[in-house]
Amino acid sequence: MNASFHHESVLSAEVIDFLRPAMGRTIVDGTLGGGGHSSLLLHGGARVVGFDRDPDALHYSRKKLTSYGDLFTAVEGNFAEAPRILATLGIEKLDGILLDLGVSSHQLDTAERGFSFQSQGPLDMRMAKSGLTAADIVNTLEASELARIFREYGDEPRAIQFAARIVRARQHGAISSTRQLAELIAAGRSGPRHPATRVFQALRIAVNDEIGSLERALPSFGNLLAPGGRMAVITFHSLEDRIVKHFFRRHSLVEIDDPTWPSARPNPDLLFDTLTPRSITASPVELERNPRSRSARLRVVERLLTPQKKGAA
User: Fold this and answer.
1) Rounded CA gap, 51 and 87, in Å?
2) Fewer CB within 10 Å of terminal CB in the chain, N or C?
3) Domain boundaries, the chain
4) Closest CA to 297 of 218, 233, 214
């Protein structure tokens, strides 16, 4: 484990303002990372249960936050498994939930983890260091499936072209390193944005089942929130943001309508009040200090005291 683990948490001030940490509150940090957000939540007096699949992150955060004693619990696991694990800890309801999605600076900057096309390393990309690697996917899937991954998870307009290029190249030997894949994708192209950016994002999402985890976690966390509890989610690409936005909207509309109905009806799935009608993005000051915050979007909802409260006069 590298003692110089570095990751600057994004939108920290906004997260703390919304989640309102205080004594007696229990908050889940579903993406513990370097413990930046958790440290601020603990400083506010809250009890924090942090989840992360990355053993490096867990090791570092446990050391960093050890002074908080029993107020902090670190759990190795996917945040999608949180409801089951929280039950074993005797936690039935939560006052706050934070999901800071995506990859940490430490993971990107550690070449041997294989997340970055900017350095030479094994084509890995696993957050948990178990299961299929990016190399397994690149060297075994058919072109059509590779293209689907690049298109759906990376919004890559040249998905078919890149998939075909990969399949041709692997006939002459396995694609095993980040640089090998990056150079293959970038062949003959130049520009301000590296051509492999979206492909690497898509592979990382596929390797770690990031979309599946998010889609499983959101409903579970919604039900775990105590009345008045808040869920804050930070996304870094359009697919994640659409999923969060639509989930929050579906459960915050007071009424739903259909052209075949005589009038609108109460929404049976009403759970939340939306606290961020538009997503919150990083300030100019934060962007200058931390350029990786440029893609971050924060959305927050609050669990209603009763489903009828929001629509009351």
Assistant:
1) 14
2) C
3) 12-105+210-303, 129-207
4) 233
| Residue 38, pLDDT above cutoff 70 | yes
Of 200, 235, 34, the residue nearest 125 (C-alpha): 200
Tokens of 70: 């029993």
CB–CB of 175/183 below 8 Å? no
What architecture is the 12-105+210-303 domain classified under in CATH? 3-Layer(aba) Sandwich (3.40)
Parallel/antiparallel/unpaired status of strands 265-266 and 255-256: antiparallel
In angstroms, the CA 47 to CA 170 distance is 50
How many residues appear in the chain?
Answer: 313
Map the chain to HEC letters: CCCCCCCCCCCHHHHHHHHCCCCCCEEEECCCCCCHHHHHHHHCCCEEEEEECCHHHHHHHHHHCHHHHHHEEEEECCHHHHHHHHHHCCCCCEEEEEEECCCCHHHHHCHHHCCCCCCCCECCCCCCCCCCCHHHHHHHCCHHHHHHHHHHHHCCCCHHHHHHHHHHHHCCCCCCEHHHHHHHHHCCCCCCCCCCHHHHHHHHHHHCCHHHHHHHHHHHHHHHEEEEEEEEEEECCHHHHHHHHHHHHHCCCCEECCCCCCCCEECCCCCEEECCCCCECCCHHHHHHCHHHHHCEEEEEEECCCCCCCCCC
CATH 1.10.150.170 fits 129-207, yes or no: yes
Q: Which of 138-152, 255-269, 293-307 has the highest mean pLDDT?
A: 138-152
* Confidence at 6, pLDDT banded by 50, 70, 90: low
Q: Please give the model's pTM, rounded to 2 decimal places.
A: 0.92
Closest CA relative to residue 179, chosen from 148, 144, 149, 135: 135
